[in-house]
Structures are given as structure tokens and as C-alpha cells.
Specification:
Beta-D-galactose binds at residues 110-111, 210-212, 282. By secondary structure, the chain is mostly beta strands. The protein folds into two domains: 20-104 and 142-191, Beta-galactosidase, Chain A, domain 5, CATH 2.70.98; 105-135 and 222-381, Distorted Sandwich (Beta-galactosidase, Chain A, domain 5), CATH 2.70.98. 3% of the residues lie in helices and 41% in strands. A nine-stranded antiparallel β-sheet has the order 13-14-15-16-32-26-25-20-23, with no helix packed on it. The chain has a six-stranded antiparallel β-sheet with strand order 19-30-27-24-21-22, with no helix packed on it. A five-stranded antiparallel β-sheet has the order 3-4-5-6-7, with no helix packed on it. The longest helix has 7 residues, at 91-97. The chain is globular, with a radius of gyration of 20 Å. The structure holds alpha-D-galactopyranose. Alpha-D-galactopyranose (GLA) binds at residues 99-100, 110, 135, 242, 282, 320, 322, 326, 346.
């Protein structure tokens, strides 16, 4: 699917697109790309490419390895650009030690307890890679696979289709899962992700993207002063291994209440037992809107200094807010600065963790003949 030569498909997206007013400032149409370049080579000789595209003031760089968002640049209130997604400058770092920076996650976002579940009477044992549990699809999830990439321009949209087929039994999951993910930048600079998957045997699936945000720019310090809003009255408390207990707990009167905009750091040291277990926030919020047919706005992140904002809309019922608790100063990011605890955060749209073992949670089962579909839209402002 991937083209063999350097490919430039420009013009169509840029042509005829009117300047868009955003944040009071007219932004010239900038639809450009996708442009392909070599990013690195894996140990087995597989070449990894980086695709660059831009539209409506957003500049995106995506790797064929893991569908990773390697860079996402947006302007601040003065028009100054920064890369607001944590990542690495070199492929070797993604292979050696990435905590899922920018990556597509599959087959199952977040944890499945003991890596086990039973479906239609058959017990399955998954790859276990997080203590006794399976995290983000197991030891070699979709974040570590090379995807086939197909660029497109469609009207004023610019984007990439990414394809990966996971064979029956891969990481312990049943069924051949054919996955297609589309990244689109529209003329307003919104980044939309559309996921589809089909299977030839009953299986479970929960796809997401693991971009780490720092709206002041990656490597610029803590996200504790970012203001966050999450439209959720409940969250799913966990055990010590971060597996949901099955309870849906109210956020009212707890540090987990983000129904009104609140700095991430305000209550992060409140000593709530759930925060102590997770070393901060690392939980699934139960979105009040539930599963919806189309994306609905569920979260807003704002950096007061730069003015940059991110709004997230999704059709999914859950949002994993992870406050970068495991960043420990051992990784050096894209611009050469060290990432310490809380230097970036994730907002992963998803079905709830461990759903295959939790009959009361919305189902993640996919059967032959059905198509798994989900969409998430990221809208940027300043
Ligand atoms: C998810 C998990 C976290 C952590 C990160 C990756 O957000 O919930 O516990 O594993 O991924 O480091």
C-alpha cells in the first residue's frame, strides 16, 4: 500500500480553500502533503517512513511504525508554533523504550486483568506485559507494528489511511483482525481519527491513540498548570494493578472531579487512595454522554500561558486520563530535553479497561460480519 517513491500530493487541498478565522486571527489555508521521507530502519531491515502533512494551521508528522504521531505543531495566541506531543527524534528510541508516545494502541487499549478472558465459553490467555496483566495489546501491540500507509487529499481534507492486519492468535487474541485507521486534518486544523476493524472469529477490540500532550510544548516542563475539563460524573476505581474493581464511583467531592475546568495539579497530591495506587491520575472516566453514534465533546485541555487549547470529541464511553506518572527523567524527548513525571498527559478515548472480564461494562466484543467503528476529533484553539 505504501508508495515506493517520495510522494508529494499537494495543491488539491490548498487550492480554493478560504482563509479560516480562528481565535480572532485569520489563518491562511495551508493544506499540504502528505510528504513521505525515510525515518529509520528496523533491525530486520524494514524501512520506517515519516509522513508530514499540514492543514488549517496544524502540522502533523506520522510514522509508519505504530502509526505514531511523532510531532504535532500548533500555534499559540501569538502565532508561535510548538510541538505539543511528546516523542523522540530517532526511531531507535521508539523501538527501545517508548511508553507508547503518540502510538496507535491495539488490539486492546489499557489493561486486561491477568491477560485472561473467556468468550463464548473459550478461555484465552493474552501476552502479559505489565506485572500479571496485559497492557495495550501485549508485548508487541499495534504500537510496535509497521502499518501500510496510503496518503490522500479529499476536497479540503489531507490525511493518511493506515492499515494493519493482526493474524489469528497474535498476542493471544482470537480472529484475524483487519484494521484501518484514518488520520485527517481538515481546513480548520482539526485532527480526526477514524478507526474500523473486522474479524473472522469472535474477538475483543478497543483501539485508541496514545498521544502525550503538553500544550506549552514538549520538553517545556510540567503540565500541572494545564486546565482540564472532563464531562464525567463517575470514574472506574482500580485495584493496585490498575484493573477496574467494577465499581462506577462518583467524582463529586473527590480529586477526580473535573466537571469544571481545574488545573491538573490542584488536587494531584490530595492523597486519595486511588491516586496513591496510580501515582497520580491514571483512570478511566465514565463519560456522561455514554456511547454515541457520532463524536460528542467530552474534554477540554488549556494551557493558560500559551493560550493553546485542545478539545476532544468522541463516540466512545470512556476517557483514560493519565498524568504522565511513569515519566521518571530517564527518557530524552524530541528536542533533547528530559521528560520528568507530569511533563505530559494522555487523554485516551476508549471502552473501559478490562471490559472482557466485566459484564456490567459496555461490550468490546466484535463478531464476524460486524464492523468495529469509532471516531475521535481533536480541535485546537488559542
Ligand atoms: C496508559 C496506562 C498507564 C501507563 C501508560 C503508558 O495510560 O493507563 O498506566 O501504562 O499507558 O505508560
Amino acid at each position: 500500500m505504501e508508495l515506493n517513491r517520495r510522494t508529494v500530493i499537494a495543491g488539491a487541498a490548498a487550492a480554493g480553500v478560504a482563509a479560516t478565522a480562528l481565535g480572532g486571527t485569520a489563518r491562511a489555508a495551508t493544506g499540504r502533503g502528505p510528504v513521505k521521507e525515510l525515518f529509520g530502519t528496523l533491525a530486520d531491515g524494514t524501512k520506517v517512513h515519516r509522513w508530514s502533512l499540514q492543514n488549517g494551521g496544524t502540522r502533523l508528522k506520522v510514522l509508519s511504525y505504530g502509526g505514531i504521531v511523532q510531532s504535532l505543531e500548533i500555534p499559540d495566541k501569538h502565532g508561535r508554533y510548538a510541538n505539543v506531543s511528546a516523542g523522540f527524534a530517532a526511531l531507535e528510541d521508539y523501538v527501545a523504550s517508548s511508553p507508547y508516545f503518540g502510538a496507535l494502541i491495539g488490539r486492546y487499549g489499557n489493561r486486561i486483568g491477568k491477560g485472561r478472558f473467556t468468550l463464548d465459553g473459550t478461555a484465552y490467555q493474552l501476552s502479559v506485559n505489565d506485572g500479571e496483566n496485559s497492557l495495550h495489546g501485549g508485548a508487541k501491540g499495534f504500537d510496535k507494528r509497521v502499518w501500510d500507509v496510503e496518503p490522500f487529499t479529499h476536497g479540503s481534507d489531507v490525511g493518511l489511511h493506515l492499515y494493519y492486519t493482526s493474524v489469528d492468535g497474535e498476542m493471544g487474541y482470537p480472529g484475524t483482525l483487519r484494521t484501518k485507521v484514518t488520520y485527517t486534518l481538515n481546513r480548520h486544523g482539526d485532527w480526526r481519527i477514524d478507526y474500523t476493524a473486522t474479524t473472522d472469529r469472535a474477538t475483543v477490540v478497543n483501539l485508541t491513540n496514545h498521544t502525550y500532550w503538553n500544550l506549552a510544548g514538549e520538553g517545556s516542563g510540567s503540565i500541572e498548570d494545564h486546565e482540564l475539563t472532563i464531562a464525567a460524573s463517575r470514574f472506574t476505581p482500580t485495584d493496585a494493578g490498575l484493573i477496574p474493581t467494577g465499581e462506577l464511583a462518583g467524582v463529586a467531592g473527590t480529586p477526580f472531579d473535573f466537571r469544571r475546568a481545574k488545573p491538573v495539579g490542584r488536587d494531584i497530591r490530595a492523597g486519595h487512595e486511588q491516586q496513591v495506587l496510580a501515582k497520580g491520575f491514571d483512570h478511566n472516566w465514565v463519560l456522561d454522554k455514554g456511547v454515541t453514534a457520532t463524536p460528542v465533546h467530552v474534554a477540554t485541555l488549556r494551557d493558560p500561558r500559551s493560550g493553546r487549547t485542545l478539545r476532544i470529541a468522541t463516540d466512545q464511553p470512556g476517557l483514560q486520563f493519565y498524568s504522565g506518572n511513569f515519566l521518571d527523567g530517564t527518557l530524552t524527548g524530541t528536542s533533547g530535553r528530559t521528560y520528568r513525571q507530569g511533563d505530559a498527559l494522555c487523554l485516551e478515548t476508549q471502552h473501559f479497561p478490562d471490559s472482557p472480564n466485566q459484564p456490567s461494562f459496555p461490550s468490546t466484543v466484535l463478531r464476524p460480519g460486524q464492523t468495529y467503528r469509532t471516531s475521535t476529533v481533536h480541535t485546537f484553539g488559542r
